[in-house]
Design a protein that fits this description.
The chain is α+β, with helices and mostly antiparallel strands and 924 residues long. It has a domain of 308 residues. The protein contains 36 helices and 30 strands. The protein has a 5-stranded mixed beta sheet. A 4-stranded antiparallel beta sheet has the order 10-12-11-13. Helix 1 crosses helix 2, helix 2 crosses helix 3 and helix 12 packs across helix 21. The longest helix has 19 residues. It is flat, with a radius of gyration of 39 Å.
């Protein structure tokens, strides 16, 4: 931190980690070497080969990775990159290639042009040759534009790209930019360009000081830098007067004196700061056809252009400060879907149609028709009769004919409606045309027409203002002229910056022309539509998305699907009875409890109570149907145990302590082994297990262990043959091994959460909900503090793993989402509402009533139920009361009530869920 600047001294102190605040201007950052630039280019080409053509990307390309898998395999196998880094490289380069059509490299040079928010255009040249060459190319090209259009451009260059910010007067065929510079003349152009850049000034001071033409020390003291600057300016005014001369007195190029200091400075600029010889070789290759040249008009900047758009001041090639850069008006997306990127070169047909409709006259009276004829030059008779597709304007034109304010001009190929004010121009273009009826032209109109040098160009100019994108052949057919006559005038208008040529209409291969202002409007409308697709969704659409995301609308079946569901619900606390009565049946077509047992017995999934509220319950607590139980992946078990560690030890009963010590000494054991080793009765062991499970200390290999503990003693009766046939028996001895889930030890609160544990929880939230924000975390009782979670989420966003932004409109604060979730959110919003009904338990993680919606919270008791229609809450069952939250016709209320009450539970679990008594095994 600078404290004081004195004569020859700068007093500083430790900034103690504060961000830099000292402004800086143009400096020269070190650039890539030629060898490193070649390696970057070769990497791009290799990845591009493995990505393929990218012509038929899947609609869900952010979810379906097949299009980039070959590139990822090569990066991980050949270069030994980790999976995450390889995926980011393949995605970044793949999206860029899809946007540009080709991968920029040293053999393939790509030009792109796009509009900014202000309606101005920017030209980006992708040339990964390093900043020494790009700086030279950018300065020379900037000078060429200045001479051609008499307009100073803002420009910047880095190792991979060059950008030129164009003004309102710049319009030209995009592919001609490659030929703006010639290898035989580029050296002289670059010399003239570098004289105006700070590069020359810095090296002039260096050479003047080294040659001792300017003293750095005097009388044993260092000459202050500002004094040296003044002295070097005085020196150059003597040696090279044109360098500091007034621009009004300079005609043509500056005359460079044959002076050793000037020659040395120019040599240093051309060969040290830049690489003129490499630039000449590349331009020679371009003119010889040895480089592949691609020119692309885009509706917004490609991902590869984002780097130069956000370049720091050391990349600038002009004196404009950061605050005044035109590139600041370019709106960049933080993330782009590969499928969307492939459509960056296409404008929206609806936007084109909207602009054409807006500029076409809306005529209601004769005066309005006359205004249209004056503004647009003419209308053909067919256009007049067609009108605005609703009314025929013939009667209005008849009024103008009667008042002698317009006439009909007849040529060999066409009949025009002409206002008297534009009649001299049309007669100049069509001297043999006949008027019907004949009418005199006032002298004032004749005099004004004489001032128009090229009447055809003005007529075409006016016509373009009412046409939108149009082919030159269409204009020629409209006016009854040859294509050559029209194209020559279009080129003249292009040189004025009035019109652009390109391929604007989707699916149109023919070259089109469009007036600049209308093209900018089409771009704005296209981006407006695209941005509306990424606007935050409503709470209703977010619930529709969550029902799809968590498989409530597309239920699956089988062990593998159950594993997928349990992975998504990992760590979520729900009432023990709700898992098999509500949560799992809601997500599976034919839920079978034996599948859950098989998944648990496979060792991949663990159940248990991971979080204990010591303020509720006693030391002799027994598991009941509302005890919060979670499922976790065994691979993450240690993290979940640490994340939910006890803040104090639990005081156990004597039986529970004895069983706990038996498991601690002997490890995982079957129920009969525990009975033998503990020397307790079976009923005493069951009582101890009740207490240990309720306190989150033990678990079993299968879920049958919990089922057996949840059956109250008064529900167990002596069995007989008939009841054994119709009832499923659940017993602790059938649960497999019992083992210690968590040690009965306390962990200091300040040491409870590590970065790894918080990141694990953040990733699980993203897997469960797709989108994460502060209010959503309220559902998760075991969640770390939001202040810790948000830091981890921000870090994940910075690594490019997730997206930050605003995705749900109904909540405030920072929001983060998976890329695939954003794609699915967009599809959900586009999908039509079909009246789909979804019923969930209040214990379900999707019970967001009162969190993202304004209704009152529904207690998370598993027997309470909520009914949604198209994502909107319409009814709830709280205890035994059914309440409709929306106005429902009486005739439909009974159907909705039946849907609300209906449960998809497996009938074989009715006895376990308390609906009938269960036989005791081993009884008569």
């Amino acid at each position: 931190q600078i404290l004081k600047i004195e004569n020859g001294k700068v007093r500083v102190m430790d900034a103690e980690g504060q961000p830099p605040t000292l402004p800086f201007w143009l400096g020269e950052a070190p650039g890539r070497s030629h060898e490193l630039s070649y390696s970057v280019s070769r990497l791009r080409e290799t990845v591009s080969e493995r990505l393929g053509e990218l012509n038929d990307l899947p609609d869900n390309s952010s979810l379906d990775h097949s299009w980039k898998q070959a590139a990822i395999d090569w990066l991980t196998g050949e270069l030994e990159l980790n999976e995450s880094a390889a995926d980011q490289i393949a995605t970044y380069l793949g999206v860029s290639k899809a946007a540009l059509g080709e991968m920029p490299s040293q053999n393939t040079l790509v030009l792109e042009r796009f509009f900014d928010e202000a309606g101005d255009m920017h030209l980006v040249i992708h040339s990964p040759f390093g900043n020494r060459l790009n700086r030279a190319w950018g300065l020379a090209l900037r000078k060429r534009f200045c001479r051609n259009f008499n307009f100073e451009l803002q420009a910047a260059a880095n190792d991979n790209t060059i950008i030129l910010s164009l003004g309102a007067t710049h319009s030209f065929p995009l592919d001609e930019v490659f030929n703006y510079l010639h290898p035989n003349t580029v050296r002289q152009i670059l010399i003239q360009a570098v004289l105006d850049s700070p590069i020359f000034e810095v090296r002039w001071r260096w050479n003047a000081s080294r040659a001792l033409a300017v003293l750095r020390r005097r009388a044993g003291k260092k000459v202050p830098a500002q004094i040296q600057r003044i002295q070097t300016e005085d020196l150059i005014s003597l040696v090279f007067p044109d360098q500091l001369a007034c621009f009004e007195n300079i005609a043509g190029d500056r005359e460079i004196p044959d002076h050793p200091l000037v020659n040395q400075t120019i040599h240093d600029c051309l060969y040290e700061a830049m690489d003129i010889e490499l630039l000449e070789r590349i331009l020679a290759d371009i003119h010889a056809g040895n480089k592949t040249l691609i020119a692309k008009d885009l509706r917004e900047a490609s991902p590869l252009a984002h780097e130069i758009l956000n370049a720091r001041p050391y990349a600038f090639l002009d004196d404009a400060p950061l605050e005044e850069r035109r590139t600041r008006a370019v709106m960049n997306r933080r993330w782009l879907d590969p499928k969307e990127a492939s459509e960056l070169g296409q404008l929206d047909q609806a936007a084109i149609d909207a602009v054409r409709a807006e500029v076409w006259p809306d005529v209601q009276t004769g005066d309005e028709l006359l205004d249209a004829l004056v503004l647009f030059g003419f209308l053909t008779e067919d256009e007049g009769k067609r009108g605005n597709s609703l009314t025929d304007w013939s009667s209005l034109f008849a009024e103008l004919l009667e008042s002698k304010r317009a006439t009909k001009l007849i040529t060999d190929k066409q009949q025009f409606w002409i206002a008297v004010e534009r009649l001299p121009e049309m007669q100049a273009v069509f001297p043999n045309a006949k008027m019907s009826p004949e009418m005199p032209i006032p002298d004032r109109i004749e005099e004004r027409a004489k001032s128009i040098d090229q009447p055809l160009k003005e007529l075409i100019r006016n016509r373009l203002e009412a046409s939108g994108p149009i082919q030159s052949g269409q204009i020629a057919d409209l006016m009854g002229l040859s294509d050559h006559q029209v194209e020559s005038q279009l080129v003249a208008l292009e040189n004025e910056g009035f019109v652009f040529r390109g391929h604007f209409t989707p699916g149109q291969d023919e070259l089109e022309w469009c007036e600049r202002r209308l093209l900018a409007r089409i771009h704005r409308y296209t981006l407006k539509r695209l941005r509306s697709e990424v606007q935050p969704v409503s709470a209703q659409d977010f619930m529709r998305f969550l029902f799809d995301w968590q498989y409530l609308t597309q239920r699956g079946e089988g062990p593998e699907f159950l594993k997928t569901v349990l992975e998504q619900l990992e760590g979520y606390e729900a009432a023990a009875a709700s898992w098999e009565s509500e949560l799992l049946p809601a997500r599976m077509k034919f839920y079978d409890h034996q599948i859950l047992d098989s998944v648990c017995l496979s060792g991949t999934v663990v159940w248990g109570r991971f979080r204990r509220d010591l303020n509720n319950g006693s030391k002799k607590a027994s598991p009941i149907k509302t005890t919060p139980i979670s499922f976790v992946q065994r691979s993450n078990l240690n993290h979940w145990k640490e994340l939910t560690a006890f803040e104090q030890t639990i005081e156990l009963s004597s039986y529970a302590e004895q069983v706990y010590q038996t498991l601690a000494q002997n490890g995982a054991s079957f129920f009969d082994e525990i009975v033998d080793r503990s020397r307790l009765l079976r009923t005493q062991v069951e009582e101890a297990m009740n207490e240990l499970v309720a306190n989150g200390l033990i678990s079993a290999d299968s879920f049958t262990g919990l089922r057996s503990l949840l059956i109250p003693a008064n529900k167990k009766v002596r069995s007989n043959y008939r009841m054994r046939k119709r009832s499923q028996i659940f017993d602790s001895s059938q649960a497999g091994r019992w083992w210690i889930l968590k040690r009965n030890e306390a962990v200091a609160e300040e040491n409870q959460f590590s970065i790894e544990q918080i990141e694990l929880f953040a990733r699980q939230l993203l897997r469960r909900y797709g989108v994460v924000f502060r209010k959503l975390v309220y559902q998760e009782k075991a969640a770390p503090p939001w202040r810790d979670l948000v830091r981890v989420l921000r870090r994940m966003e910075a690594r490019g793993e997730i997206r930050g932004g605003r995705f749900v409109d109904a909540v405030w604060g920072e929001q983060f989402a998976l890329e695939e979730a954003v794609t699915q959110l967009r599809k959900t919003r586009k999908a039509e509402k079909d009246g789909q009904l979804v019923t969930i338990s209040a214990a379900d993680p999707l019970n967001l009533v009162g969190i993202i919606t304004p209704e009152q919270r529904i207690p998370a008791f598993y027997k309470n139920r909520i009914l949604y229609k198209d994502g909107e809450t319409i009814a709830v069952r709280n205890k035994n009361d059914v309440v409709f939250l929306k106005a429902i016709p009486d005739a439909e209320k009974w159907n909705y009530q039946k849907t609300l009450i209906y449960r998809n539970a497996n009938p074989r679990l009715n006895v376990y869920l308390g609906k009938e008594k269960i036989p005791v095994p081993g009884s008569n």
